[in-house]
Amino acid sequence: MKLSVPGRATAAAVVAAATLLTTGSIAGAAPASAPETAAAAPDLPVASVKAHLTQFQSIAAANGGNRAHGRAGYKASVDYVKAKLDAAGFTTTVQQFTSGGLTGYNLIADWPGGDTNQVIMAGSHLDSVASGAGINDNGSGSAAVLEAALTVARTNYQPTKHLRFAWWGAEERGLVGSRYYVNNLSSANRARISGYLNFDMIGSPNPGYFVYDDDPAIEKTFKDYFAGIGVATEIETEGDGRSDHAPFKSAGVPVGGLFTGASRAKTAAQVTKWGGTAGQAFDRCYHSSCDTTSNINDTALDRNSDALAYAVWELSS
Ligand code: DTR
Ligand code: ZN
Ligand code: ZN
Question: What does the similarity note say (predicted)?
Fold first, then answer.
């Protein structure tokens, strides 16, 4: 459920113009002359996002209890996501790589249309650790990115910029899949990526609301969304180099993303902003077998899924 964000399209146009004037480095935001009414992102029903989590849980249960790199559960996860995207009209590509002697897979989905010289990407890692199903880490990001992509298709959104979605393999082995993807881009294709948005752990049970402190325009887009629904955010400080935005950042691509916290404990000051439990980890089941569909805070997943959609629509319009 999303509170209204009054005047946000006008605010976004003003923000885009201000950012262009001040930083000159807008990642995919509409040019200053953009129409007043940038396309408004639809709400992503959290039930639809959670339905994908249920599928990921079932996949893990049917494949040795996990969705880890090199295991059957990971490839079954790729097959599930790919089938949904193919049916929705995306152009999908499965990129193979090897890590630890085992075959890994990235899944890339392009939405036909838009300026392919200005590509907005949203991505998440699809693999879990071997100890469990990896529902918050990172079924949450993968399900939200999938539901946003399916909503693009369902609404036949035709953005100015080209949209590309990605699900990475072997993140838990050291950002292997995303690094392989970036390293295998030609310099021309790398330059065409206006921004990469990363979503890794966005439904933590004792959630914080963290925004990556990287590209200013992307950061502001996320902050504007949360301000519009009256939710305080903090800058993500533990994330540098710790998820799939890192290879893009190293290659000079503007990046941003959202995070609800892992094994660090929530402070009393943060509880005053967000509720929850002080002195307890944001996610007590981080990298554990208890990272199941019970390890999700629905409100956090809902808010971050809608923030993801808002940013994709705003930065590609
Ligand atoms: N490396 C991620 C979890 C993680 C830890 N800190 C951050 C900061 C920002 C994004 C993700 C993370 C993993 O275990 O998949
Ligand atoms: Zn992890
Ligand atoms: Zn993760």
Answer: Belongs to the peptidase M28 family. M28A subfamily.
Q: Which CATH number fits domain 45-316: 3.40.630.10, 2.40.50.140, 3.30.70.660, 3.30.559.10?
A: 3.40.630.10
Q: Does ligand 1 come within 6 angstroms of the Cβ of 140?
A: no
Which among 295, 297, 305 has a CA at the least distance from the CA of 45?
Answer: 305
> Which atom number of ligand 1 is nearest to the Cα of residue 210?
9
Q: Catalytic pick from 147, 171, 172, 236?
A: 171
Q: Tell me the pLDDT of the chain (317 aa) as tens digits.
A: 343 333 344 444 444 444 433 333 334 443 343 333 346 899 999 999 999 999 999 999 999 999 999 999 999 999 999 999 999 999 999 999 999 999 999 999 999 999 999 999 999 999 999 999 999 999 999 999 999 999 999 999 999 999 999 999 999 999 999 999 999 999 999 999 999 999 999 999 999 999 999 999 999 999 999 999 999 999 987 767 899 999 999 999 999 999 999 999 999 999 999 999 999 999 999 999 999 999 999 999 999 999 999 999 999 99
- Omega prior to 106 cis, within 30 of 0: no
User: pTM here?
Assistant: 0.89
Does the beta carbon of 238 sit less than 6 angstroms from any atom of ligand 1? yes
Q: Which residue lies with its CA nearest to atom 7 of ligand 1?
A: 239
Q: Is 147 annotated in the active site? A: no
For the chain, which residues make up each domain, given as ranges?
Answer: 45-316
